[in-house]
Specification:
With about 180 residues, this protein is mainly β. About 10% of the residues lie in helices and about 40% in strands. The longest helix has 10 residues.
Length: about 180
């Protein structure tokens, strides 16, 4: 049995949806799609209803592409992840990308740890599509509650994939021709 043995079902007036609840250490995940949503953007749901974005973030569809042996059954599972821009000061209405946050960890994956010294570095959602990295996946809870509502990336565990070492090319040995005796 995998960690996908539990699915959370959210019930609303007319809809029901499921979100996977995963607990995987050292999962390899891939960003399938990424979209920047700004404060004030109006989003139309599939049922025609709308809502307004209150915090800027990059919304991503994620997929587990590899996992430790005991969690291999979760490979191929997809979920939605939001990389929020934190406020510069609580209640200020100004947002930034900074170290120590989930969006900051992903920025460091793409631009390197010294990216914070460069004012020109910007995290473009297009740069995220296809990005593959290692992280821990943990159950996501409702804000201010212990109710589990899905899966989230633990931002402190985000790491790049290890670089593949190139195997040195070994030349085939030369064998001298042996003269045939008649």
């Amino acid at each position: 049995m995998t960690s996908l043995d539990r699915l959370i079902t959210k019930k609303a007036k007319k809809k029901e949806s499921t979100a996977p609840v995963l607990t995987i250490n050292d999962a390899v995940v891939k960003v399938l799609s990424a979209e920047l949503l700004r404060e004030g953007d109006v989003i139309t749901k599939k049922d025609g209803s709308t809502f307004t974005i209150d915090k800027p973030h990059i919304a991503c569809e994620m997929e587990v592409v590899d996992a430790p042996k005991r969690k291999r059954g979760d490979v191929g599972t997809t979920w939605y992840e939001k990389f929020y821009y934190p406020e510069t000061k609580k209640g200020s209405g100004e947002y930034e990308n900074r170290q120590g946050t989930k969006i900051g960890a992903v920025t460091e994956l793409i631009h390197g740890e010294d990216c914070w010294d460069d004012d020109e570095v910007v995290l473009d959602p297009d740069d995220l599509e296809g990005l593959t990295f290692i992280c821990n996946l943990v159950p996501k809870t409702e804000v201010g509650s212990t109710k589990v509502i899905g899966t989230r990336i633990d931002h402190e565990s985000v790491e790049p994939l290890p670089e593949e070492e190139e195997e040195p090319e070994i030349e085939a040995p030369e064998f001298p021709k042996i003269a045939e005796e008649a």
